[in-house]
Amino acid sequence: MKQLSLFEDILPKEKLPTNLTTNRHPIHKWYNFIAGFSPEFVSSCIKNANLKPNEVIVDPFAGLSTTLTQANLQGFSSVGFEAHPFFYEISLAKLFPPTEQKQVKFIESFCVSLEPYQQELTNIWTTTAVTFLEKLIPELELRLLASAVIAENQISQEQQPLYRLILSRVLELTSKSQTDGIYKAPTTQKISISYQDALSKVCDEIQNDIDVLGNSFIPRAKLHFMSSEKMLPLEDKSCSLCVTSPPYLNNFDFAEMTRMQLYFWRYAGSWREITERVRRWLIVNTTTAPTDLKRNQILFSKSLSESFQSEIKPLFEALKQQKQIRAGKKDYYLLLYPYFAQMQSVFRELKRVLRPESAVNIVVADAALYGVHIPTEKLLAQLLEENGFQVLNIETLRTRGSRWCLQKRQGTEKGLGEFHIYARRY
Fold first, then answer.
1. Could you tell me the pLDDT band of residue 12, with boundaries at 50, 70 and 90?
2. Residues 402-418 pLDDT 10s
3. Cβ contacts of residue 412 below 8 Å, gap of 6+?
4. Pick from 65, 76, 11, 4: which is nearest to 41 by CA?
5. How far apart are CA 379 and CA 124, in angstroms?
6. Do 380 and 343 form a contact (C-beta atoms < 8 A)?
7. Rg (alpha carbons) of the chain, rounded to whole number
8. What stretch(es) of the chain map to CATH 3.40.50.150?
9. Which of 196, 215, 220, 214 is nearest to 54 (CA)?
10. d(CA 217, CA 246)
11. Which CATH architecture has domain 13-96+218-251+286-404?
12. N or C: which end of the chain has fewer CB within 10 A?
């Protein structure tokens, strides 16, 4: 496999798979997520692909739509798939941003005019949600935000994604709890700001970007609220470049990371509802996935080639053995077949929707669960090779710090990293 780097002289490559540069970029900085990659990574992939103006970029795991947003900013058409409801709605605000400052000023004035909600908060949220939110948000701010949730129906449907983005940022800024690693930790305090100050900060930022962009910005993106295991809206050979980052097989839970927002916007009112309404539709990468999906091992394993199964089986057995001796008793071994079978479904769909010779750029990480090293980047590369792609390179972008190696995951001698898989459709 030829060693090459696509990312010389644009940004230190260790920053490419991170969100560390997002705040430099208009629209991107309106709302970003700790698991996202950089706009620079997308730009480099677009440049390397030599795209023509009428060609389309696809992202099967859109998240908060870094790929689609950057494609918009550079004048390219794009299409994405996202099964997480909160990410989907926030993405809509970024992909179809306001064109005039008065749209933002209206939302700001509307939110400033709201009075704190005076009744029981359980009239708005479930008891479980209220208990969780009260640990994170000071009472006055939470009651103002409660009024904003109730008042959403007074905002036009066209403006509701922007309304949700603004208030979700306010929710985060008013929170007195730090994000500890990647999860919101009620016991870890941070400095919060008032509801009014947060509104002013967020709306000023958006209005400044509208000034920078002017009237020349034309959205060219389409985002579908669905899994990419079946990209039904896309015709065969309709796309020319893939830039994406799938969920990592590291047991970090995208639903848990966004529990505050899922409760706040009433996507779910309990842990069980989060599982059924959110986790069920995501790629299986965490032990909190629905039990029936994890237990359906035979169905998932049979979809994989015998050669691939032979790679997975030793890892499966090692993790199964570790479960018996570890105090946590996590069933990590049940994640392997579902994860790779679902990723294979996505790759097969990519093969269908991409034109011949199209480039595929995937940012992914390996994992160490109970000390068992999972070389995810190599296994995904093998799946690509088995399903119609030529893998040209696997480049290490960075090594990952201690927050990705919690105590229950330590024990492997191999350090963990994030990788760029560069492939091409045959």
1. confident
2. 444 444 445 456 679 99
3. 368, 371, 372, 373
4. 11
5. 46
6. yes
7. 22
8. 13-96+218-251+286-404
9. 220
10. 28
11. 3-Layer(aba) Sandwich (3.40)
12. N
